[in-house]
Amino acid sequence: MSAIGPRLPLMKDEVFGHFSLITEYKEEIKQNLKNLLLTAPGEKMMNPDFGVGMRHFLFEPRKHSISGMRQKIDNQIRKYMPFLRNLRVQFDTNTDQDYLNDSNILSVTIIYDIPNLNLSTSLVLTKEDIN
Question: Which domain holds residue 75?
Answer without folding.
Answer: 25-130
